[in-house]
Specification:
heterodimer; A: eight-stranded antiparallel beta sheet; globular; disordered C terminus; B: elongated
Chain lengths: 159, 118
């Protein structure tokens, strides 16, 4: 049984993701900070992208750069680590666009497990919504469920 | 500000995963009905229907109101709003990542055992 991944929008500019891992923080931290491990999970197959390269200089003030292929196009994500506290806290910037968030990841030990919290703070409400392709998502992901609801007559309830 | 959690959508999907419950929504889309009406329509016991309606109610898809001895069911105010939809997409991305990360962490745990570092 997989542990649950929870997401909450805690303010107009913030998203918080929470998940428990069945291992101690030192191992979970390793999975985030060693490039050869990080690249094994950061780009799940369902994203339809592949990771071409992954350079990470994980120390305060160090930088990272990830190159992706998406169909025929390529894109890079990069930024700087603002804080690296082994086994407990990572903070980095997302500098590829002006709308990029500051990401803070905390690792907290609980009975040999790790409570992981990913916190993203965007420069503005608009940045958060643009960055997540809110409009496409509206149309796309729940299209099927919407169709089902329409067929059930629930559409009349939509405002 | 309203806060959205994955729980809301999970509840909707769970509610919609059952044919009887989808049928109940369909019926309530046409008219408000009592628990007894629904039990008769679906040939299910009153207890069974109450359970189904309870699940739909928790998901916000149905509301009920008891007047005298009759509990009337109608479609709820709930709609799958857009913000919940894109937050769910974002959640799914992290979920896929983390499910793969489980494997990485398991690998590290096994390695620690072999190396005797624990």
């Amino acid at each position: 049984m997989k542990n649950r991944t929870m997401v909450e929008r805690t303010s107009e500019r913030e998203l918080v993701v929470t998940r428990t891992f069945n291992g101690p923080p030192r191992l979970v931290f390793e999975a985030w900070t060693k490039p050869e491990l990080f690249r094994q999970w950061w780009v799940p197959k369902s994203m339809g992208m592949s990771l071409l390269s992954c350079e990470m200089d994980v120390r305060t003030g160090g930088s990272y750069r990830l190159k992706f292929a998406y169909g025929d196009s390529q894109m890079a994500f990069f930024g700087t680590y603002k804080e690296v506290t082994p086994h407990s806290r990572l903070v980095w910037t997302n500098d590829e666009s002006e709308q990029g968030a500051v990401t803070t990841v905390t690792f907290e030990e609980k009975d040999g497990k790790t409570l992981l919290v990913v916190h993203e703070l965007y420069p503005s409400k608009e940045a958060l919504e643009a960055e997540h392709g809110m409009e496409e998502a509206m149309a796309e992901t729940f299209g099927q469920l919407d169709e089902l609801l329409v067929s059930l007559g629930v559409s009349a309830q939509r405002s | 500000m309203v806060q959205y959690t994955s729980g809301r959508l999970d509840a909707s999907f769970a509610a919609l995963s059952d044919a009887t419950r989808r049928g109940i929504l369909e019926q309530l889309g046409r008219a408000d009905l009592s628990i007894t009406d629904l039990a008769q329509t679906f040939h299910v016991t009153l207890t069974g229907i109450r359970k189904h309606v309870g699940v739909l109610e928790q998901a916000g898809l149905v509301t009920t109101e008891k007047v005298g001895r009759v509990r009337t069911c109608r479609l709820g105010p709930r709609r799958l709003d857009e913000e919940a939809a894109w937050i769910e997409r974002y959640r799914q991305l992290w979920q896929s990542r983390f499910d793969e990360m489980d494997e990485v962490v398991e690998g590290l745990k096994r390695k620690e055992k072999v190396d005797g570092r624990t």
